[in-house]
Amino acid sequence: MLVHRKWVLLAPGCVGLCSRSFSSSSDRPPRSTCSIYGRPKKNDNESLQCTREDGTDGSRHYVYRDNGGNVLYSFPSVTTILNSTRSTSDMFRMKVWTKGQIEKYGIERFKANRLRIINEGKAFHAEIADFLASNSSSSFTDSNTSEYFNSIRELLINDITDVKLCEENVLHEELGYAGTVDCLAKYKGKTCVIDWKTSQSPKSDLFDYPLQAVAYAGAINNMGQHKVDNLLIVVTCSGTPPLVKHFNVKECTELWEQWIDRLEYYQTKSYN
């Protein structure tokens, strides 16, 4: 077994092994030393530079370098791990959906639609970040995403407070993954990792969104500056109320187990 499953809070700075690229099973960190929380102590003056590097296979890695440009870590993104460990049925449904879209629109329009959705998502996230920083949407001018924003405006104004992080890179040095967290803030008084999603149609299925969020929660806790054990997933759809789902501590514990299963599977595939 590769990593520790226990959802407990240890004091920041507890020593453990850092996950890197391991060449064999004997090099992998034992579960007993890989707690979800407890970051290996680093030089407080060290400033890590992070770049996101995309592979030709669609994967993404977060590469961390020191001030001298030396690579310290190269960790797969949370979304890369989740995309690589989907169930057979999920992958089949995705292939069927993709094939249907291509047959309906043609390959070029399909690619254009996919790019538009990606760009709208980026613009939507940027507008939320700007709003939370200034508490004003007066500069909101993107007509393609304004309805997404309007659907969550009241939630942002009434329920989201004490923003700690917004569109920040996070990493779990011990378990060897990284990502970009949408938001860390209080939702109705509870500190939550918040994940903003857009959808072209109303959704009831959250897919792997909760696993993505709980992975970020583990990384944030391991980094030591904040403590979080609640999640909030907000799925917006133009013209309809958003789907808002809160996950408490108990639910996060269950989600963490599922995330560790996926992470172990990904690591096993990578090592073999």
UniProtKB/TrEMBL annotation:
Keyword vocabulary terms for this entry: Exonuclease, Hydrolase, Mitochondrion, Nuclease
Protein family according to the UniProt entry: Belongs to the MGME1 family.
Its biological purpose: Metal-dependent single-stranded DNA (ssDNA) exonuclease involved in mitochondrial genome maintenance.
EC main group: hydrolase
GO cellular component: mitochondrion
Annotated EC: 3.1.-.-
UniProt biased composition (Basic and acidic residues): 41-56
The keyword Nuclease is annotated on this UniProt entry: yes
List of catalytic residues: D182, D195, K197
Superkingdom as given in the UniProt entry: Eukaryota
Protein name: Mitochondrial genome maintenance exonuclease 1
Organism: Amphimedon queenslandica
InterPro entries in the cross-refs: PDDEXK-like_dom_sf, Restrct_endonuc-II-like
Annotated region described as Disordered, given as residue ranges: 21-56
Lineage: Eukaryota, Metazoa, Porifera, Demospongiae, Heteroscleromorpha
